[in-house]
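Budget justification aside, the reviewers requested a transparent look at the raw inputs and outputs of the sequence design task funded under Objective 1. We therefore reproduce one unedited record. The lines immediately below are the structure tokens for a 372-residue chain.
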């Protein structure tokens, strides 16, 4: 494909219109209906201060800096990116474990970032989380029965007090653990079993959305497969929606319907699993895919390996314009002065091609990477 010229505009409408069209573009197919979760321009800046007694702010770590996406009922949205790109911070913001600097999170049309007290408690019942470390996320002084049953103490309307033990045993059985393990402690289980306990705790209140923050990264490969298969089975059984955060691109493709690629606090590209993996248009996505290990030696020889130069910039002082430009082989003067918006590139607009998905790059073009 020919390179875009410097004058070839990625968009040709006002910023407000562009943003709305971009959100429409990376939405799931129409048949899914309205999104169950809508994230709009989510921002989280952690202040940097100086001084001991008289503290003053001298800057901010821009962990998340304008992230938008939709999640549909029964769908899995994968979020990938390097360490430090803001994936886990997004998860905490969606759970309101961190307070957003700005932006909106709509759950069934209601902005949950404005909620507090009972209203927030009611929403949290429907949005649960599975944490990365299956050991530190479980209280070592509590039995499995107490850990899984704790949500019932917070939301007693879900299960009467006399019925909670039976409910916990049912949940253990659902995630593939012996119900008789109810009186054991976390240290008596393997890593995979502990993650199953975390999943059971997440399922206790019959949520509609589960946010999975690297739920299998601490597990062995064989155990990873078991947990992923369990999550897919539970999704079909309970019609769950997942936000699945991970580093492993092969696992993300296996479980996700759509994928968002993050870089330095922003979304670089969003599309279906086929669009992202087989027809990536953003240089960062292409570099990530080229780094995926491939067991077949013939494929390894044929594949172009993209080596990025330099280090990831500090989120406290991100580059102007495009944040990826300091490591990008396509960077030009325009990239330093004009921030690319998440939109369908001009060359693909109106075309029935998998490359016609949103990408935050002035010079986006399709590049096939033999990866996963």
């Amino acid at each position: 494909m020919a390179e875009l010229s410097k004058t070839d505009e990625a968009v040709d409408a006002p910023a407000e219109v562009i943003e709305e069209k971009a959100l429409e573009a990376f939405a799931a197919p129409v048949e899914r209906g309205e999104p169950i979760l809508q994230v709009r321009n989510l921002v989280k800046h952690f202040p940097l201060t100086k001084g001991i007694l008289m503290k003053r702010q001298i800057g901010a770590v821009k962990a998340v800096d304008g992230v938008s996406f939709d999640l549909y009922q029964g769908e899995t949205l994968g979020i990938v990116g390097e360490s430090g790109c803001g994936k886990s911070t997004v998860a905490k913001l969606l759970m309101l474990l961190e307070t957003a600097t700005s932006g909106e999170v709509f759950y069934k049309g209601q902005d949950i970032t404005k909620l507090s007290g009972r209203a927030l408690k009611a929403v949290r019942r429907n949005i649960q989380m599975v944490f990365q470390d299956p050991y530190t996320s479980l209280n070592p002084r509590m039995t499995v029965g107490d850990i899984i049953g704790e949500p019932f103490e917070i939301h007693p309307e879900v299960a009467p007090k006399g019925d909670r033990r039976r409910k916990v045993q049912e949940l253990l059985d659902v995630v593939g653990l012996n119900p008789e393990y109810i009186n054991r402690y976390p240290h008596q289980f393997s890593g995979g079993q502990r993650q199953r306990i975390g999943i059971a705790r997440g399922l206790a209140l019959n949520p509609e959305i589960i946010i999975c923050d690297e739920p299998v990264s601490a597990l062995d490969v064989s155990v990873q497969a078991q947990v992923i298969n369990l999550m897919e089975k539970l999704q079909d059984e309970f019609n769950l929606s997942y936000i699945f955060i991970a580093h492993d691109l092969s696992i993300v493709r296996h479980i996700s319907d759509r994928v968002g690629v993050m870089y330095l606090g922003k979304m670089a590209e969003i599309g279906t699993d086929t669009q992202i993996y087989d027809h990536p248009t953003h240089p960062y996505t292409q570099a990530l895919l080229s780094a995926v290990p491939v067991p077949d030696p013939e494929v390894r020889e044929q594949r172009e390996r993209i080596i990025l130069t330099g280090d990831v910039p500090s989120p406290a002082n991100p580059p102007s314009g495009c944040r990826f430009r300091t490591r990008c082989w396509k960077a030009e003067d325009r990239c330093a002065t004009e921030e690319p918006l998440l939109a369908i590139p001009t060359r693909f607009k109106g075309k029935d091609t998998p490359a016609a998905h949103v990408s935050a790059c002035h010079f986006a073009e399709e590049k096939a990477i033999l990866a996963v």
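The CA atoms of residues 200 and 364 lie 42 Å apart. The beta strands are 37-50, 56-71, 76-80, 102-107, 110-111, 127-130, 209-213, 241-245, 258-263, 266-272. Computational costs for records of this kind are itemized in the attached budget.
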